[in-house]
Amino acid sequence: MNKQNTKESGCISITAPSNIAIVKYWGKKEIQLPVNPSISFTLKNALTKTQVFYKHNTSQNKVSFQFLFNETPNKVFEKKLITFFDRIEHMVPWIKHYHFDIHSTNTFPHSSGIASSASSYAALALFIKELHKIVTGTIMYDKDCSNIARIGSGSASRSIYGGWNTWGKSESYPESNDNYAININNTIHPNFNNIIDSILIVSNTSKKVSSTVGHQLMENHPYKEGRIHQANENTAKLAETLSQGDWNTFIEICELEALSLHGLMMSSTPSYTLLEPNSLAIIQKIREFREETGLQLGFTIDAGPNIHVLYPSLNKIEIQEFINSQLKPLCHKQTVIHDEIGEGPQIM
Ligand code: PMV
Questions:
Q1: Which of 331, 333, 44 has the alpha carbon at shortest distance from 200?
Q2: How far apart are alpha carbons 50 and 347 in whole angstroms?
Q3: pLDDT at 114
Q4: CB 118 within 8 A of CB 155
Q5: Number of the ligand 1 atom closest to the C-alpha atom of 153
Q6: Cα separations (Å) of 210 from 118, 204, 207?
Q7: Model confidence pLDDT, tens digit, residues 31-72
Q8: Could you identify the atom of ligand 1 that is nearest to the CA of residue 26?
Q9: Quick one: which of 32, 138, 237, 306 is 20 to 30 A from 320 by CA?
Q10: Which residues, listed in sequence order, are joined to residue 13 by a DSSP beta bridge?
C-alpha cells in the first residue's frame, strides 16, 4: 500500500487469482447463496490486477465510479458493479462517500475457461478491505471480505485465500457457511499441495449460455434434489480424500463432479451443451492414458468446453509430454495454459 494513502484520496493495487472448483457450486437461493457446498483450489498464474484510485467526497451519498477493463470502458460489467455496490453498502456504509477509478486487467485470455468473475470480485473485495482499514482504522475479518466477494460472484468468495477453500455449509467443515468461504489448508495432505492444472483451450468463443442462466435453470430442474444430495456426499468424500492424500479417489470425484455439472446442463429445460466434440475426445484420451500408464491424472471442467487436466507436480514431465503430443493437437490453436495451486491474493 502507498504510504501517502489517506482517508481523502489514494491508490490501492490488488492482484487476485481465479480458482477451480472440484465440487461444483451449481444453483443458488436468495442473493447469491449456494444450494450446495463447494470445494476449490486457488490458481497461481490466472490473475486479475486491479488498481483503484479513490477520492472522498462528503457531498456524495452514493458510491460513484468509473470502470476500465484494459483501459476501455466495459458497460456490461459497469452495470453489474452498480448492483454490487448497492448490495454491499449496508456492510461498509462509508463507501457511499467515495468515488473510485477502477482499472482492471487479466493475465489470462477472455473465454479461456478460467473464471474471471472470481478473480475480479475477489480483487474488489480486497480493495474494499484495504480501504476499510484506512477509513475506519479497523481490520475487516476475512469472512466479511469473502462475504463481499460472494455478493459479486459466488465463486469469488473462495478466491480471497490461497490454497484449498470451501464455501457453503457442510458437515465436513464445522466452520463452513453459506455466506462466505473458509480456508481449509490445515486439513490438506501434502500430496495435494503441489497440484498442477493444465488448461486445454478447446474453444475460445464466448459461452452460449452464461453461468447466471445455468444457475437459474437449477431452480426447477427435475434432478435438483438429487444434485444437492450428490454435492453434499461428494463434499464429504472429497474432504476425507484431501486429508488422506488419496489421488485415485480424488480423480474419481473430480471427474464425476465435472460430468455431473455438464449432465445437469444437458437435462435442464431448455437443455444445452457447452462441451465440444474435442472436449469428449480429450476426456477419452486422458482416461486411456491413465489406464495404460497408471499415472495419476484426471480432469475437471468448468461451465465451458475447456478441459482442466489435474496432476501432482511429481508426474509433470511424463504428463506434459502426453499433453503436448496427444492433447495439444485437439486444442484451439494448440493452446494450453499451465497453471498450478497458488498462494492467494497480493496487496501492493
Ligand atoms: O460464481 P459463478 O456464478 O460464476 O458460478 C460458478 C459456477 C462454476 O464455476 C461452474 C462452479 C464453481 O463452483 O466455481
A1: 331
A2: 10
A3: 80
A4: yes
A5: 1
A6: 14, 14, 6
A7: 999 999 999 999 999 999 999 999 999 899 999 999 999 999
A8: 7
A9: 237
A10: 51
Contact 104, 124 (CB under 8 A): no
| Ligand 1 contact, 302 CB (< 6 A) | yes
Percent of the chain with pLDDT over 70: 99
Q: Rounded to an integer, what is the distance from CA 51 to the centroid of its chain?
A: 20
Cα–Cα distance list, 212 to 106, 195, 334 (Å): 21, 29, 29
Give the per-residue pLDDT at 110: 77
- Lookup result for grid cell 489470462: 108
Q: For residue 326, give the DSSP letter.
A: I
Residue 248: per-residue pLDDT? 98
Q: What percent of the chain has pLDDT above 90?
A: 93
> Which of 19, 24, 28, 265 to mutate to test ligand 1, by most ligand atoms within 8 A of the CB atom?
24
Nearest to 197 by CA among 50, 79, 322, 312: 312
Q: What is the CA radius of gyration of the chain?
A: 20
Pocket test for ligand 1, best of 83, 155, 164, 215 (most atoms within 8 A of CB): 155
User: Averaged over 9-34, what is the pLDDT?
Assistant: 97
Does residue 238 carry a pLDDT above 80?
yes
Mean pLDDT of the chain: 96
